[in-house]
Amino acid sequence: MVTFENDYSFGACPEVLAALVDTNMEAMIGYGEDPHCARAKELIRQACAAPDADVFLLTGGTQTNQVVLDMLLAPYEGVVAAATGHVACHEAGAIEFGGHKVLTVPGHEGKMHADELEQLIDLFYADDNHEHMVFPGAAYISFPTELGTLYSRDELAAIYEVCQKHEIPLFVDGARLGYALASPECDITLPQLAQLCDVFYIGGTKVGALCGEAVVFPSGNAPAHPIPRIKQHGALLAKGRLLGVQFEALFTDGTYVRIARNAIDMAGRLRALLHERGARWFLESPTNQQFIILEKGEYERLGKQICLSFWDTYDEDHVVVRLATSWATTQEDLDVLAAAL
Amino acid sequence: MVTFENDYSFGACPEVLAALVDTNMEAMIGYGEDPHCARAKELIRQACAAPDADVFLLTGGTQTNQVVLDMLLAPYEGVVAAATGHVACHEAGAIEFGGHKVLTVPGHEGKMHADELEQLIDLFYADDNHEHMVFPGAAYISFPTELGTLYSRDELAAIYEVCQKHEIPLFVDGARLGYALASPECDITLPQLAQLCDVFYIGGTKVGALCGEAVVFPSGNAPAHPIPRIKQHGALLAKGRLLGVQFEALFTDGTYVRIARNAIDMAGRLRALLHERGARWFLESPTNQQFIILEKGEYERLGKQICLSFWDTYDEDHVVVRLATSWATTQEDLDVLAAAL
Amino acid sequence: MVTFENDYSFGACPEVLAALVDTNMEAMIGYGEDPHCARAKELIRQACAAPDADVFLLTGGTQTNQVVLDMLLAPYEGVVAAATGHVACHEAGAIEFGGHKVLTVPGHEGKMHADELEQLIDLFYADDNHEHMVFPGAAYISFPTELGTLYSRDELAAIYEVCQKHEIPLFVDGARLGYALASPECDITLPQLAQLCDVFYIGGTKVGALCGEAVVFPSGNAPAHPIPRIKQHGALLAKGRLLGVQFEALFTDGTYVRIARNAIDMAGRLRALLHERGARWFLESPTNQQFIILEKGEYERLGKQICLSFWDTYDEDHVVVRLATSWATTQEDLDVLAAAL
Amino acid sequence: MVTFENDYSFGACPEVLAALVDTNMEAMIGYGEDPHCARAKELIRQACAAPDADVFLLTGGTQTNQVVLDMLLAPYEGVVAAATGHVACHEAGAIEFGGHKVLTVPGHEGKMHADELEQLIDLFYADDNHEHMVFPGAAYISFPTELGTLYSRDELAAIYEVCQKHEIPLFVDGARLGYALASPECDITLPQLAQLCDVFYIGGTKVGALCGEAVVFPSGNAPAHPIPRIKQHGALLAKGRLLGVQFEALFTDGTYVRIARNAIDMAGRLRALLHERGARWFLESPTNQQFIILEKGEYERLGKQICLSFWDTYDEDHVVVRLATSWATTQEDLDVLAAAL
């Protein structure tokens, strides 16, 4: 069945799969000390124009958020996130497992507002009792957000300015970063992102890899002893090559952005199709996720022909449905959807 | 360079790699809910003759030990392990990160003795002050051990009897389980193992997979809500298929044991070669790891021709060196080694 | 200077102090195994009409909330509290330190509404994705609340009904429990409270003791091995007698309620005085804490004559101020306040 | 019954009790911000000749060890202790609860040897695999040890030299510090101790207080934000005065050392008595704890007349018994013991 269910429905993009096959019988040293990991990291440094960056390759998104936030935060500190942020609601308490509270500000179509972040920090320090409260020790945003929306460069710069003023690091969750960078509405490049935060990650799992997220500390600003920290979280692969080979492939010949662009192109056509059919929008995003409101019967009928994602209940008679494109989405998929609508 | 460095030097065995390629463009649901994961679990249940088993697929060994022990132990409990056990010394504090102490008994060529386990438990409960101490809440052994040695069925049964008598679960770390099962000196089958412990895992990373360990609770005795527990540890892959496809391949047509047998056959020839050359043994094991003592100069000379693993300092002039075979080791590799020795 | 700053400004009430002096040279066994601890627990069981209750004596409120919630919650569970609940905002992350998220519902003058608790639970289980979220594993309320307000018996019963229906324990923080029980507006007795929740604590620190909180599991329903759990939190006093002697004194001859009644009587006179002087109320409570709005200059002027508690900023020109009475408040204190107003 | 059971059998020494009574009706600000806490800290700074010291007052020993070690250690670090150290065996996993492993070296009558500490550190860094192991991040010793023995100044200096060379802090558990300082065999003064470690605590609970331990960071070297750290551990008393008043009394007019000296004087007479009676020594210590070997029948007979502490089983027919003196022990107690022996 044709799928618009999510962006992790398929295996690896062809370039990544080929690289895994090609390197399979190379004997390599373990734990990420191999030359493919080294090369992947170097390619990422180049793509970020961040020659001094510390780069670590981890396996999945929740793991990455947990490891990075544990590295950034002192025990008495929490992380500030939008209420809809992944760390705030969809990680089964992985951040609290590490001992840290997630402090929330309202999400505006998934985005944090710089002034609300600053207000939270100001109110904290203005409270005479703040030593009995959880310190705001880092800020977390997703780019794109969980709703597919994008921060403009000005919006991101405003958030980072608040962070720098209050000396807390800004961490950008880029689980779907490729789909931001490839969007025509995105005015932030990868090198600019590397200058507008303290640490971010480049998502592989949802952008063409079998698994893998590349954490970047742009100025070589990783905390001390990252390897034991990663190992302690059960996040150090014996065959680190699995991640190195994939990211090397993704960052060779512009593969990462190119395959993301396919998702964005297909999302553009999807949006046009939905407009044409008079779909009722819940949220039209500039990236690869689109959210529409369907009458329940219509949703059930459509669900028999196309894989979709139930997102939320809208009202008694309607639901919010997500349609996602990916590097693997084709015009043929859209044609099937058009016929089914 | 020919390698005897370890058993995770190469990518996946051919069957696993082919399965990943063949299934790559199947659209699948995420988080391990896909049919390949279901099929892999069913094949594992069959291989274990444990039709009610709960099976979970995780990514690596330290992660698996951490997740399983966190599931088994109450907060006031620790795990008893041999002093040489992986959880006791080589996981960067992953067990303590979860809040649990590792209580140790002496390792005898890597093995725990049932009577020393019982003595530790007896002394604990005999101590009037034991409510101020860490309760022995589970026992952990590795099979094969970190030194390649094997428990006999009687030895394992004796340990399990102690555990059952004191009502603590026994957890068997099978990171290299295939190399035990394939050893002619092993008198324990997989179905027997499933009856002689409360939970064990079948190692994939070191036995033919790119990554992956299959946790088996043989009688369906997994604690409640394993998915949130796994997610909370950052151990739930979005593309759970990566693990399902690999274990499905490993447990189809006896691949798992067959590729392990190659390692054992090659280890047998390696042992013969080492005997023939009059090597000084540190520990000759019945599985895929062999430990010899080399004069330092000899070690350096050999290390230029063959990848080996430094294991330990033996004395001022000698070192202990590990040579490991794997599913990928060939007669040609042995010929090169023979020439270099 | 006369103080209405809080209810923990003075040492112990005379009965408690006398008991400490009288028992000082009795040689006693440590760690709470002494006869005064035993007698205190028995007196508390009698006062609660809960002959099977498990009772534990701890030192302070945050410690008690942390220990009890760690006992109640599985690692993948969080606690539901009002947004203004002490565990949600004023314990420096003590609950998260134990690995648990605090899930919040709105506070209505400090109180949780049963229907909003149920809605949170229902929405959680209705979400297909809930295994990626933090399970609501217990409910926490304060009685009186942090704002001095009281649940009626019906309101408490409604919350407990929701908890029982969904099989999550209800924990009542009684840091100021005496001031509830002594209030004429309270329609819940101690034996009734013991039937309307799964665990609660009787606050000593704020009701006449130097330190100490008595945790009550009314039906003997404490989780296994409480002593190691308490010890593991650093909460087991070597001289457990310090807590036993104090609670024995508080629960002998009705001291606990009698001294609390003084606070309530004085609070009644305080309210009358404030009404008489036309004070602007922020929140008039039925217990020992009253909240008024003062113009900033007036607040500064008053603060030079009387110890008050700044509570919150109200608007640019006004602040919210708390006045608290206690077992130690006298008519003379009120006269000084009357003169200063 | 006369007691030699331990040094926390009685309430407070007279000076401390009087101070609690005298200050009882002083209205004070909470959470340790009161003038008695300030005065206590200042007196401690003076006694330590450490004018810049950071001083914190906590409630008990295990809590103090937990809070201090959590402050000192990075998440990937453990603490090195003697195998008999309190943190290694008698805190119910409180250190592991904070996520840290306790690494052990042999205990020699309770003492750590500097060379064995150094060997552990050297072996760790010499191991190529050490990033997969727990880093030695601090050293912990008890003074006196759990067996009543003392480090000489040279021994302590040697340990501290190892710590400084390897840049790990040395933490001295002084739960019974008074009994060391008062011992004629002790060649370390309080100001010298303050120069020979990075942090230590002055035990109150076992030396005359109802509860309380004073943590001293001699050069003002406490980590950032100690108050939230303490609060997060549930270790911040609302009535911080309880600790301040007691330590103020203990450090006024030399009370702390004077009352400790009584324990040492009585221990001297106890040792003489035991020698006179031909007691079989297990360990004769220079402080307030003495350990003798008794035939089981003799132990039972004596236990009916005198409170003693069972320490350990010696052999089938004998047990090790501890006799402890304290500030409260009198010649009359010794006379009763002499009659009973």
TrEMBL record, chains A, B, C, D:
InterPro entries: ArAA_b-elim_lyase/Thr_aldolase, PyrdxlP-dep_Trfase, PyrdxlP-dep_Trfase_major, PyrdxlP-dep_Trfase_small
Keyword Acyltransferase: no
GO molecular function: lyase activity; transaminase activity
Record key words, sorted: Aminotransferase, Pyridoxal phosphate, Transferase
Cofactor(s) in the UniProt record: pyridoxal 5'-phosphate
Regions annotated as coiled coil: none
GO biological-process terms attached to the record: amino acid metabolic process
UniProt xrefs under Pfam families: Beta_elim_lyase (PF01212)
Aromatic amino acid beta-eliminating lyase/threonine aldolase domain mapped to chain residues: 19-221
Superkingdom, taxonomy of origin: Bacteria
Family under the similarity heading: Belongs to the threonine aldolase family.
Name used for this protein in its record: Aminotransferase class I/II-fold pyridoxal phosphate-dependent enzyme
